[in-house]
Amino acid sequence: MADSHPLFPAPSEDADPPEVQTIHVTRVPDGTHFRAFGPDELTSLEQIYQMFGGGQYTLLARNSSHITARVAYTLPGKSKPMNPEPQEEPHVAPAPPAAAPQQQTSDNFFLGMMQMMQANTAAMMSMMQAQSAKQTELMIAMMGQ
Question: E strands, 29-137, where?
Fold first, then answer.
């Protein structure tokens, strides 16, 4: 069995840990700011707190083509900007915006899709947890008879 990433443990002792080639960090509920990291660049919640401060975070583990795991963490404290604006050098003239509006539209579309997928995933997970609890109650009731 392969070693698991500290932020993405194996779902059970018998299961293989998820493959982690990149980690995407999104702060909830805004979901509009995210950063991607290599698996060796981000290995602890303390690093997330030092970079971004407190808040609710969703971490996605990805291999080359798929999401392999999703975890949610809540860190106490005040949030920091995830993508701070770069400071301009005083002697450098700003470059004219070329294709930024078209790219921004594309980015907004994909970010909107990610937010919708997160909401759907959260609702699905909640429904699955409720179903699992009902099944557990049923099994306990059946075993008690």
Answer: 34-37, 53-62, 67-79
Question: Measured on CA atoms in the order 98, 104, 110, 111, is the torsion positive or negative?
Answer: positive
DSSP letters, 60-91, are EEE-SSSEEEEEEEEEEEEE--SSPPPPPPTT
Residue (of 38, 7, 22, 31) closest to 117 by Cα position: 31
- The string of pLDDT tens digits covering residues 123-132 is 667 667 777 7
* Residue with tokens 């294709």, as numbered in its chain: 99
Sheet containing 67-79: which strands, arranged edge to edge? 34-37, 22-28, 53-62, 67-79
Average pLDDT over every residue of 94-122: 59
Contact 19, 3 (CB under 8 A): no
pTM of the model: 0.54
Tell me which residue of 110, 19, 7 sits closest to 58, measured CA to CA. 7
The pLDDT of residue 80 is 85
Here the tokens at position 38 are 């290599």
Residue of 91, 100, 18 lying closest to 59 (CA atoms)? 18
